[in-house]
Structure formats: C-alpha cells, structure tokens
Specification:
This protein is α+β, with helices and mostly antiparallel strands. The chain is built from 7 helices and 13 strands. The longest helix has 20 residues.
Length: 256
C-alpha cells in the first residue's frame, strides 16, 4: 500500500490549520502526524489515515486539528473495527479537545473537522464529521463516500436550492470542539467495504482542495498512467491554487 500526501498552507496565513495522520497501530515508529508536508510512504494494513481541518473563524485551528490527530495516534491501540467502539473513541476525542481548549485563554472555542479511514482485515471503515472528505475511485470515476455536514449540503438535501445558492458553502453544522461537546451534532461511522474488497484507491481532502477543483479535473488527473500519485497531488494542488483557493489544502491518495 502506498500513501501520497501533500499539505500546503493558505496564502497569507501564519499557520497551516490542516493536519494529516498516517498511523500503523502497533508500529508507532512508522506513524506520524503531518503538517505542511509533501511526500509518500509505503505502509501495510491495518492502518488508520485521517485528515483534520481547523475550523476557520475559531481561534486555535492549528492546535485543534493537531491535538485531535496526536491524541488519536496516542490512543491508536483503542481503534477497533466495531461501530460502537469507533463512535466512543470519536466522542472521547471530542471531550478531550473541549477539555484541552478550556485551559487555554482565548482559544476555548478551538474546533476541527475530522475524517478518518480505517483499513484492516474486515475491509474499510470511515469516521467523519464536518466537511473534510473521503472518496474512492470507482473505475474512472470518483465517488464521494462521506457527506458534508454543511448548511449548503443540508439545504440541497432539503430541496431548498435558492437558499443553498445564497449560503456559504463551507459553513459547517458539526465539528469536534468549539467549546462544547454539543457541537458534535452529526457523526458518521460506516463499514463501507467488505473483506477482500478493500483494495483500490482512496482520496482524503480538506475543503481547500475539493471546493476549488471539480470532479472532472480530478478524474482526469487520477486517470493519467504516466505520473505518480505524488505528482497527482501536485497537479491537484496547482489547480486549487489556480482557482484561487485561499484556504489550507490537504490531499492524501491511498493506493492499495
């Protein structure tokens, strides 16, 4: 299995508020939390991969996303291929972030979105809140696995298209932290691939990527056989920048 990752700070920002996790439970030496990074790793299942994007408008976004993924790495021995266990771990991370932030004056409302992918001998699981994303390649096409927990997506799902056109596409309805455990209003946990069918290509992104690159472009890049996955992250990053993405940008391509 190969993971290609790129994380880039938004223009004019002091800190990059995106972090990514590459975790091999039981092998801490080969596990890491990444920020402002470009590179590729050869890893083996079982593995846990995640993206966290500090919530803009709340102070301490860099610390929030980094804290959650470092805590997840520290507690990776608790990761189980079981829906209830994964839910309790996610809710525990939320409580830990709220408690951590409460002790930092001026950063009590730090918050982050969170999307994780677990690959093991039971197949593939995701744990998700907010508007970071997990997608898979299905033949030549990209199929989004997670649903954005945003006002825009809620309005679209409700059929209120005019209001959706007027709203901020990136306004989230659920996250970890934000000063209270009650802001984790939606938590998606799903076993979406069975044993023996987990091989394939997975893509994790923050909104600085997927709000500024359309599916057709990404499918074209993913379908080019002459380039590496790391080079694909370069092209996708360049496209987001060309489309004036002001935000931090993260993309992981997982090929297994």
């Amino acid at each position: 299995m190969k993971v290609s990752c790129q994380i880039k700070k938004g223009a004019g920002k002091e800190q990059c508020e995106d972090h990514a996790l590459i975790c091999l439970p039981g092998n801490m030496e080969s596990s890491r939390v990444l920020n402002e990074f470009r590179g590729a790793f050869e890893i083996a299942a079982p593995c846990l991969l995640a993206v966290a994007d500090g919530v803009g408008g709340n102070p301490g976004g860099n610390e929030a996303s980094g804290f959650v993924l470092r805590e997840l790495l520290r507690r990776s021995g608790e990761v189980r291929d079981d829906e209830k266990a994964l839910e309790e771990l996610a809710r525990s991370l939320n409580r830990d972030l709220v408690s951590h932030a409460a002790g930092i004056p001026g950063k009590e409302t730090m918050a982050t979105t969170f999307t994780a992918l677990l690959l093991d001998d039971t197949g593939a699981w995701h744990v998700h809140t907010g508007n970071t994303r997990l997608a898979v390649m299905s033949g030549m096409f990209i199929r989004q696995i997670t649903t954005d927990h945003t006002t825009w997506q809620w309005l679209m799902d409700s059929g209120n298209f005019e209001a959706a056109d007027r709203c901020n596409r990136c306004e989230i309805q659920s996250c970890l932290g934000a000063g209270s455990i009650r802001y984790l209003t939606r938590l998606s946990i799903r076993h979406f691939r069975e044993p023996g069918s987990a091989s394939g290509v997975y893509i994790l992104t923050s909104d600085g990527i997927h709000e500024y690159t359309d599916a057709d472009f990404m499918e074209d890049v993913m379908g080019r056989p002459e380039i590496s996955d790391l080079e694909r992250t370069d092209l996708i990053m360049e496209e987001a920048l060309k489309n004036e993405s002001p935000d931090d940008k993260t993309i992981l391509i997982v090929r297994c």
